[in-house]
Write a structure and sequence with these properties.
295 residues; mainly alpha; 0% strand; globular
Length: 295
């Protein structure tokens, strides 16, 4: 959620600089958001082999956060920050005050406002206690990413950029943990404390990465991750449509034969590492052949 927001000022900024109108980029944003929603919904139809309506997938939720962040990114920094705080406050109030019988435990699994929304929209709950309403509070992540990207694109000196990101990140981390006694940090329902503390860690990680790669010039090591990042959507869809299991079926007989002496756990760990390597090599093949699948 966050890193997509960071990329938006760079990608959209290039389009605006070459003369694309806001209306044209809005059209592209609507198409991209629709495709993300389509892919996120379609992934849940593959497993059961039938049409189903579920919105817990990260792609489906990203379709919402991306579009909102796009619509807000030309607003001032104060307006964008204020908007994200309003989203978190609304989320907090809905979880605590929404009057629904049987859903009076705001932070208990499957007993909060998010679970009620899922039952109302999809008539079922997630097996892992995730809720589709997470798209609303995590819009803050994407919008904070946009603001961070705008800082990186600004004319500030490199150390000034790092200072802004690090201070904002530290405030988020401290504030998020300070809220924990009042509002528990729960990722699966994206409580306000979780959004704030995880957003803070994202900002700190970005500040450190910018300092290490762009300021200090240590770039070669990052190529390993860039190879995956350039086809992140493809590899996500591939692994979630059975690709990882398929690679596992290929590797497992050989690994079990070679590492049976270490026990089942050792063989499974090695198998997982080999499958990860196969997935990375697939991304490497696409990278070397300049094949980048994006929307």
């Amino acid at each position: 959620m966050f890193i997509v927001g960071v990329a938006m000022p760079f990608s959209l900024g290039k389009r605006w600089q070459r003369g694309d109108s806001w209306r044209k980029t809005l059209h592209h944003a609507l198409i991209r958001s629709s495709l993300l929603l389509l892919f996120g919904w379609a992934l849940y139809c593959i497993g059961p082999g039938r049409l189903t309506f579920e919105l817990w997938n990260v792609l489906a939720q990203l379709s919402f956060t991306y579009l909102v962040a796009f619509l807000m990114m030309r607003k001032s920094t104060s307006v964008q920050l204020g908007f994200t705080l309003v989203l978190l406050i609304i989320t907090e109030l809905l979880y605590r005050l929404w009057p629904v019988a049987g859903f009076n435990q705001p932070f208990a699994p499957d007993h909060g406002f998010g679970a009620w929304v899922d039952l109302a929209i999809m008539h079922k709950l997630s097996d892992g206690h995730w809720v589709a309403f997470n798209a609303v509070p995590t819009t803050a992540h994407t919008m904070w990413g946009v603001l961070a990207g705008q800082v990186l694109m600004s004319s500030r000196a490199p150390l000034a950029k790092i200072r802004v990101l690090a201070i904002a990140g530290a405030i988020g981390v401290v504030s998020g943990y300070a809220l924990n006694p009042l509002t528990p940090i729960i990722k699966r329902i994206c409580t306000s404390s979780f959004v704030i503390v995880s957003g803070g860690w994202c900002l700190l990680a970005l500040a450190f990465s910018y300092w290490l790669i762009d300021v200090k010039g240590y770039k070669k090591w990052s190529t390993f991750f860039n190879i995956v990042g350039t086809n992140s959507l493809f590899i996500y869809l591939f692994t979630n449509t059975g690709g990882a299991e398929w690679f596992g079926k290929i590797a497992r007989p050989f690994i079990l034969g070679l590492f049976a002496w270490g026990g089942q756990l050792t063989a499974e760990i090695v198998t997982s590492l080999v499958v990860w390597g196969m997935l990375w090599y697939l991304c490497l093949w696409l990278y070397r052949n300049r094949i980048f699948i994006k929307i």
